[in-house]
Design a protein that fits this description.
The structure holds two protein chains of two kinds.
Chain A lengths: L1 H51 L11 H15 L5 H12 L4 H6 L5 H14 L5 H7 L5 H13 L6 H9 L5 H11 L4 H7 L5 H14 L5 H7 L5 H13 L6 H7 L5 H14 L5 H10 L2 H14 L1 H9 L5 H8 L1 H4 L1
Chain B lengths: L1 H40 L4 H4 L8 E7 L6 H9 L6 E8 L5 H9 L1 E4 L12 E7 L5 E6 L4 H11 L4 E5 L4 E2 L3 H11 L4 E10 L4 E3 L2 E4 L6 H23 L10 E5 H6 L10 H15 L5 E12 L5 H21 L10 H16 L1 H17 L5 H29 L6 H35 L22
Parallel strand pairs in B: 1-2, 1-6, 2-5, 8-12
Antiparallel strand pairs in B: 3-4, 4-5, 6-11, 7-12, 8-11, 9-10
Helix pairs in contact in B: 1-7, 1-12, 1-13, 7-13, 7-14, 9-10, 10-11, 10-14, 12-14, 13-14
């Protein structure tokens, strides 16, 4: 037994000692590579910025090794760029054949490598990756599918819209990721989304309506007004919010009617939308809801009324039976300006 | 007699093997979890959630009792958070110092009437304030009812579907909320709550409510706690989260679905461990309804907090934590060993009962037994020596592993000198500090037996002052 304990102690001591050595060596190596990275970045950053500013800066004639060094700097800068600069980055990656490697990595056996590759392809901005990324939407790993959807969004891959929407509603990718991808595609995603407003599945309808509200225009008001009468409360609430975002003045009457919806969060959404639409005709009803309704709807109605007609809210709040929501909205008028 | 002592010695050995086997297992699980998480950061696109209109809004709840020293810096750090839509609700829990006055001066507060839900009963509210400078900031002033009561009041005041509970002495890094909300963005229907890592701010350089340089506390006690927090968060919580049985989300930084908090009745006001109790209650509530859910720990969002640096304050804190654990385990004893609750009932609750709760008793009672066994010749000196050396080295290895996890993943300490110091303290904490903790935890059990239920005051210096008081 003593021998066993002694062996155990020796083993733990060796493992501890080894860990400390590994930590020390790793720290030194990382510090060295960080110094090199910073030195190289300070040299490459001006080149990258000149390149993005439409001056070649010698980028065309870079050796393969230098191009490899410049790539991460461009990737990082390109993440927040759109338009010509982004196209220039895509050309750089295509010209130096730097897109091929991540496309090959999409077939790696390791999910994290596939996901990282799918993610970087979006930052590279090369449309040549769209086919591979669309295929990656069928990957077995959720992170890979998510990274592919995000990249397809950044690449503006309109053909991928139905597939991305399907991936969202079947929960193959998170709704936030799919939604963001469709928002990145922009108005080109609208035709596909409009078709889904009448899908049989309520969750799909709600998702489509929400995104139409974020991407759409006045021509969408009519469809959205129809969704205010949807059988699903979730869809009705999203439609109300969407109409508010689009500032659908001609929908005000329907939104006022939605303040009588039987579901409280639909009534609250209608009040929020009316605040955005700003129709003074809604104020009396909003004040009534603020006075009598359940908490969330009453709070939203009071805020909406205060935004549309501060004087009416101040007058209503002066009444002792006004209720706390109108009083709060009135008191906050100087705060919200 | 000798046989009895030998049997007891064997039992102690078996217990020791069990405890450390579990720790080793968790270290392995945590390594796997953190490695995976570190890789995922490369393609998580968390920063993009900042500009997304689909990111759900969050109400931050900040309970404050006599926090005049640090409340302004804490609120400033929250106002700087990168998050698309949030509100900050400070709940003044009947402070007797100048907490409200400091807030009014710093943020130009004006009195307003405020609508509060009546979902959870709380101590009476005296008034409310809104900031003219920051429309997203409001303050609710209520009579003293404790931290849990303040959080419940915050839930009643919250506008948004998620509530984030923060300690008044804590400071969040700018992206902390985005990181901790990431699992919710990915799976809003499944994720019920998430918690983030808490780190010790003592010794760090803090400017305008932001940690600008990570340092170590000047005191030995503070540095021990830095190593201890690595073990607790990077090993313990990552491990439990990976197996889906996370029982603790730190009261300093946790994000919860508001409707669920309301459904279970809010934070319990009759325990000093309201953070752990709420998480256990959420587990229980959801499992009783056979709902699919996840409660997750996210290791990279950082919440900085002030650690006690004197023995009296630290012992109070540790005794309070242990009392909270006792109260929670007792209240939810039906979970222990109950297969209906899966790994939670079969592994997590028994672990906390046998290792975290009874561990100090077994270990501290074990010392006199070992001495007696040695004195009576039941255990030989070479055996005793070999056992003690092995136990010490294993403890050191576990502490170093936690530090290595930090170094291989987040590397927040840039100074080599700091890391060398942490390594030294990872060794030293096994000689005295851990035993001291066991002693406090044993005292907490006695407190419980005596019916002691007070929180105890924590003397705050205020985080903005932490570096200036350093002596390094």
């Amino acid at each position: 037994m003593i021998r066993l304990l002694a062996w155990g102690a020796a083993g733990f001591a060796s493992a501890g000692g080894l860990s400390v050595c590994v930590l020390a060596v790793r720290r030194l190596l990382l510090a060295r590579s960080e110094r090199r990275r910073k030195a190289s970045e300070s040299l490459l950053l001006p080149v990258a910025l000149r390149f993005l500013d439409d001056e070649d800066g010698g980028v065309e004639h870079l050796s393969e090794e230098d191009a490899q060094a410049l790539a991460p700097v461009l990737l990082r800068l390109g993440r927040n760029l759109r338009g010509v600069s982004r196209e220039r980055i895509a050309t750089f990656f295509e010209r130096h054949r730097l897109v091929d490697q991540p496309i090959r990595q999409l077939a790696s056996s390791r999910p994290w490598k596939r996901a990282a590759a799918a993610f970087s392809l979006g930052d590279m901005g090369s449309h040549s990756a769209i086919a591979a990324l669309s295929k990656a939407l069928d990957d077995a790993d959720r992170d890979v599918r998510s990274a592919a959807a995000r990249s397809l969004g950044l690449l503006g891959a309109t053909d991928a819209v139905p597939r991305v929407v399907y991936a969202v509603v079947t929960r193959q990718i998170p709704r936030s990721v799919g939604g963001q991808a469709l928002l990145a595609i922009g108005s080109a995603a609208l035709p596909g989304l409009r078709e889904l407003e009448t899908a049989t599945d309520a969750e799909t309808r709600a998702f489509a309506v929400e995104l139409v509200g974020l991407l759409g225009d006045a021509s969408d008001d009519e469809h959205l007004l129809g969704r205010l009468r949807d059988t699903s409360a979730e869809v009705r609430a999203k439609a109300a919010r969407a109409l508010g975002r689009l500032g659908a003045e001609e929908g005000a009457a329907e939104l006022i009617a939605a303040l009588d919806d039987r579901i409280v969060f639909v009534r609250a959404a209608a009040a929020h939308a009316l605040a955005a639409v700003g129709d003074p005709a809604a104020v009396p009803k909003l004040i009534r809801v603020a006075r009598d309704d359940q908490f969330d709807a009453a709070r939203a109605a009071a805020q909406a009324a205060a935004r549309i007609d501060p004087v009416a809210v101040r007058d209503a709040a002066a009444d002792t039976s006004a209720g706390i929501h109108l009083q709060e909205a009135s008191d906050r008028l100087p705060v919200i300006g | 007699m000798l046989t009895v002592l030998q049997a007891l010695a064997l039992m102690a050995l078996a217990y020791y093997a069990l405890v450390n086997g579990v720790y080793l297992l968790f270290t392995a699980i945590a390594w796997r979890g953190i490695t995976r998480h570190t890789r995922e950061r490369a393609y998580s696109a968390t920063a993009e959630a900042f500009s997304s209109p689909l990111t759900p809004p969050v109400s931050i709840l900040l309970p404050a009792y006599n926090e005049e020293a640090g409340i302004v810096e804490s609120v400033r750090s929250l106002l700087r958070l990168r998050y698309p839509e949030l509100e900050i609700v400070v709940v003044n829990d009947g402070s007797t110092d100048g907490t409200i006055e400091r807030l009014c001066e710093a943020f130009d507060l004006v009195p307003v009437r405020k609508a509060l839900r009546d979902e959870i009963v709380t101590a009476p509210v005296r008034g409310a304030y809104a900031s003219r400078r920051h429309p997203e900031l409001s303050v609710v002033d209520k009579e003293n009812g404790g931290k849990a009561d303040s959080l419940n009041c915050g839930v009643n005041a919250a506008r948004y579907p998620y509530v984030c509970a923060i300690d008044a002495d804590a400071m969040l890094e700018e992206d902390a909320l985005l990181h901790v909300a990431k699992p919710i963005l990915d799976d809003p229907e499944l994720v019920a709550a998430t918690g983030g890592i808490v780190r010790i701010a003592n010794g760090c350089t803090i400017e305008h409510g932001r940690v600008t340089a990570v340092g170590l506390p000047a005191s030995k006690l503070g540095t021990f706690q830095v190593v201890e927090y690595f073990r607790a968060f990077l090993v313990g919580r990552v491990g439990w989260s990976r197996i889906g049985a996370l029982l603790i989300i730190s009261g300093a930084f946790g994000l919860f679905r508001r409707s669920l908090v309301e459904a279970v009745g809010g934070w319990a006001t009759d325990t000093v461990g309201e953070d752990v109790e709420l998480v256990v209650r959420l587990h229980r509530y959801l499992r009783d309804r056979d709902e699919d859910y996840r409660i997750e720990f996210v290791p990279d969002p950082v919440c900085w907090t002030e650690a006690p640096e004197d023995l009296v304050q630290l012992s109070r804190q540790r005794r309070r934590w242990q009392r909270g654990l006792v109260e929670t385990l007792w209240r939810h004893r039906a979970l222990c060993g109950n297969p209906r609750y899966g790994l939670l009932g079969l592994v997590a609750v028994p672990y906390f009962l046998i290792i975290e709760l009874l561990g100090p008793v077994i270990q501290l009672v074990g010392y006199p037994f070992v001495i007696a066994a040695f004195a009576l010749g039941a255990v030989s000196f070479p055996f005793l020596l070999a056992f003690l050396v092995m136990a010490l080295l294993l403890g050191v290895l576990l502490s170093i592993s936690a530090l290595a996890l930090e170094e291989f993943s987040f590397r927040r300490h840039s100074s080599n000198r700091d890391v060398a110091r942490l390594l030294l303290f990872a060794v030293l904490e096994n000689i005295g500090y851990r035993q001291l903790n066991d002693f406090w935890r044993l005292q907490a059990l006695l407190d419980c037996a005596r019916g002691h239920r007070q929180w105890g005051d924590m003397q705050r210096r205020g985080l903005g002052h932490a570096p200036r008081e350093g002596v390094r």
